[in-house]
């Protein structure tokens, strides 16, 4: 068939779409600006283990994602919630213990880290099908083709699919033949899930919280961390806690944030809490390949899955994809997979 598709972005959306299109017989090229794959999936290796600074959990109702994990023979394991949880209501009060309600929806994690999902997909591509350090800056329609331009090369394709979060897309890529103004307006007001979050993880020699009858789960109205969970690995030989920090701390330095977390860990877990092996964090509001500085406040998931993303643009040669454009579970990993199926079907109908 030899129809060529350029995919912009090697996050879950780009890699999954590449996997589907290659299987269907298209010639594909995935262009990724970063020096790593994954986008908002970011499994960081540290102290003989790995911690998730991006996406972590999936749930039974994420049907397409669950099916994909099975197809790729990935092992899933339950988020450990055994034991009591902690709650800090105000700075003046001591941290309280409480029993977590029974029969909660189970959250699952992927053995080897969320990155294992990406590694399985990437294994299907040859070296020249997936390029890192390739920042797309311009998309230009030609008569029968479409050009994708980076600092060093121009790629010519029959069709281009962007998987960059829509709001970032319209702020960072130049379109000499202007995009539909309504599409630009909606993209500009399309919320990028978790763009303001700060995630942290601390690695320990032992799961000391278990000996105290604690699950590692905690919630705080005070901060700096607002939520914390057990983050020990699948083998249960490497131990960690992982959580979310108050987004306002993005303006502090890493050293200041770590100091605040250490103090709160001491308050929550005693001396063991502050004796960690390593502290890792990711401030997503400062990730230029995920988000862009705008003054507009958007409610979470605003315009995710908007109907306008269902159409193709630039005379059918350009498609806006990515998890946020999915009508089902937009913003989540499940959205990336659902939307991948939609687009693969759309391109097959168009070209086959
Ligand atoms: C902290 C955090 C926690 C999360 N937790 C969960 C969770 O537990 N469960 C869940 O289901 N979801 C979670 N999510 C959401 C999940 O990560 C996303 O839904 C999913 O990873 C989105 O994938 P994507 O490929 O659509 O977008 P992205 O992962 O954002 O990928 C876009 C890619 O495009 C690249 N790019 C950007 N600009 C350019 C350019 N100009 N040229 C080339 N490439 C470019 C980026 O580098 C990136 O690799 C979380 C997200 C974050 C940030």
Automatic annotation (TrEMBL):
InterPro entries listed in its UniProt record: Amino_oxidase, FAD/NAD-bd_sf, Flavin_MAO
One annotated GO molecular function: oxidoreductase activity
Taxonomy, superkingdom: Bacteria
Pfam entry (one): NAD_binding_8
Amine oxidase domain mapped to chain residues: 97-344
Matches recorded under PANTHER family: AMINE OXIDASE
Family to which this protein belongs: Belongs to the flavin monoamine oxidase family.
Protein name, entry field: Amine oxidase, flavin-containing
Organism: Winogradskyella psychrotolerans RS-3
Lineage: Bacteria, Pseudomonadati, Bacteroidota, Flavobacteriia, Flavobacteriales
């Amino acid at each position: 068939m030899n129809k060529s598709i350029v995919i912009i972005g090697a996050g879950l959306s780009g890699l999954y779409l590449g996997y589907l299109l290659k299987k269907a017989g298209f010639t594909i090229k995935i262009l990724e600006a970063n020096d790593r794959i994954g986008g908002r999936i970011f499994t960081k290796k540290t102290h003989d283990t790995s911690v998730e600074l991006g996406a972590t959990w999936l749930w039974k109702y994420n049907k397409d994602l669950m099916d994909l994990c099975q197809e790729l023979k990935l092992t899933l394991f339950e988020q450990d919630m055994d034991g009591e949880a902690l709650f800090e209501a105000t700075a003046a009060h001591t941290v309280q213990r409480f029993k977590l309600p029974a029969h909660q929806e189970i959250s699952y994690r992927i053995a080897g880290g969320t990155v294992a999902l990406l590694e399985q997909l990437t294994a299907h591509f040859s070296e020249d099908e997936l390029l890192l350090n390739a920042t797309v800056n311009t998309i230009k329609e030609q008569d029968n083709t479409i050009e994708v331009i980076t600092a060093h090369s121009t790629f010519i394709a029959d069709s281009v699919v962007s998987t960059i979060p829509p709001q970032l897309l319209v702020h960072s890529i130049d379109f000499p033949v202007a995009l539909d103004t309504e599409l630009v307006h909606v993209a500009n007001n399309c919320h990028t899930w978790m763009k303001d979050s700060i995630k942290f993880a601390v690695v320990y020699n032992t799961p000391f919280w278990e000996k105290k009858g604690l699950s590692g789960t905690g919630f705080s109205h005070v901060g700096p961390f607002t939520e914390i969970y057990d983050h020990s690995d699948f083998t249960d030989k490497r131990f960690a806690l992982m959580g979310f920090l108050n987004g306002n701390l993005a303006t502090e330095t890493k050293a200041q944030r770590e100091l605040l977390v250490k103090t709160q860990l001491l308050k929550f877990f005693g001396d063991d809490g502050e004796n960690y092996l390593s502290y890792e964090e990711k401030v997503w509001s400062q990730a230029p390949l995920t988000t862009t500085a705008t003054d507009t406040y958007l409610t979470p998931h605003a315009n995710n899955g908007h109907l306008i993303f269902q159409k193709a643009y630039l005379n059918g040669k350009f498609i806006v994809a990515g998890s946020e454009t999915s009508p089902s579970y937009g913003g989540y990993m499940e959205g990336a997979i659902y939307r991948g199926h939609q687009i693969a079907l759309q391109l097959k109908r168009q070209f086959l």
